Amino acid sequence: MTEARTITYPPIGLLINGEWIYDRPIHSEVENPSTEAILGTVPRANAADLTAALQAAARGFEVWRKTTPTARAALLRRVAALVRERVEAIAPIFVAESGRTLAEVRAEIERSATFLDWDSEELKRNYGRMIPSDGQFQQYVVREPIGPVAAFTPWNVPMSAPSRKISAALATGCSIILKPASDTPATACLFAQCFLDAGLPKGVLNVVFGDSEEISRALVLSPITRLVTLTGSTHVGKHLSRLAVETMKPVLMELGGHAPVLIDDGVNAAEVARLAANWKYRMAGQFCSAASRFLIHKNVYGDFVNALAAEANKLKVGDGFMADVQMGALANRRRLAAMEEFVKDATKRGARVAAGGARIGNRGWFFQPTVLADVPLDALIMTDETFGPIAPCVAVESMDEALEIGNSLNLGLGAFVFTNDMATADHLTRELQAGSVAMNCFTSPGAEAPFGGYRDSGIGREGGPEMHHSYTIAKTIAERRIRI
Fold this sequence. Notes:
Blueprint: E1 14-16, E2 19-21, E3 26-31, E4 38-43, H1 47-64, H2 69-85, H3 87-98, H4 102-122, E5 129-131, E6 138-145, E7 149-152, H5 160-172, E8 176-179, H6 185-197, E9 205-207, H7 212-221, E10 227-231, H8 234-246, E11 251-254, E12 259-263, H9 269-280, E13 291-297, H10 298-314, H11 333-348, E14 352-355, E15 370-373, E16 390-396, H12 399-406, E17 411-412, E18 414-418, H13 422-431, E19 436-439, E20 454-455, E21 458-459, H14 464-470, E22 472-479
Parallel strand pairs: 7-8, 7-10, 8-9, 10-11, 12-13, 12-18, 13-16, 15-16, 18-19
Antiparallel strand pairs: 1-2, 3-4, 5-6, 6-22, 11-21, 14-15, 17-20
Helix pairs in contact: 1-7, 2-4, 2-5, 2-6, 3-4, 3-6, 4-5, 7-8, 9-10
């Protein structure tokens, strides 16, 4: 399943006030998920480092908030150009520390650049508004940058998640302190270097690594930071939100999902299965809008399960550097153990393994693309976020039953509907309690559209004009232009 590939893994440092710091104690090691080889080490920021990062962000904010929108837009365009120039330098590092395929990481690097593209244009449209005068005074509303941002990003999208947050912060005039995941640190550092090389002033972007709880408390409880944003688990999101309340600062949370796929009678089961396999098994299923619960009308259930199993069995799994590989490794041993537990629990409760179901080999964290049929609703995989390459399938009597199951969890990030009946399509897309719903396709919002969830799936929206609302404050100014 693996292929030898020699790369030069860069040193990982802390970025504080425009300078990289490398001489800190080791916090953790970085493992290649495909080979289990140790790539490098991650430093641990101490209390003084975190204080320095906060102070740098405060100074950087005073500079950046006064920088003109035109200059901010030009900076983001320069960064986007550098990202695209450096694709082939970043991609091997990204593959080595994430376990994903070369094709996938190249696509994510490009996606990261599109966030910069969008924000470089959208920042010019952060307009205020005039309120009709009542004759006594004139009122108008302006949007001002909220202040330094504390941002936390995950291991599964180590470049596009930081890009969303850094790009939006800089577009609106904020500075930012980023705490990337320690599993995939080099990708985030290489991305941060693009901002320095593009001419970003010192202190506007800072990057720290180390103990998550120590960093969370230092950044979130500090009066310097004015917004907390996380892409991560619901558990961590709730913890950071509780900390943020203590200093009365808002949060922007893109949290867990468990996306239902509602498949109606009368569809082409084989075609839906082909589309589903392409979406479900990309990134080995390790992304928040992955299809997680397949709720299939009984009349097409058998055809769909057989077709999806056939698609899963065709996928080539292996090291991300291998030619023609279609699915890479899971990120770590914890994810492999979770997949094994999901299969064990589901089959114990009566589910049938239609494809896959087991680890591949004994080196690297590879797991077979898996299809589980006849999964009972009380199985763990029907309630716990999967974050892996397992597709649980359930037969339903009607789309009303599918809708009820789809809305039964406290998670509501993404959902998918496949039907040829437009009345059914309209009903389901309106009634599904999810932040984004795709009909007869698999997709997730990009830079131009808002992305976020209902209930435990988060607070606020990332992407589109709505994202900038989180990074700005509306100020109302009333004035009476008379001599007094």
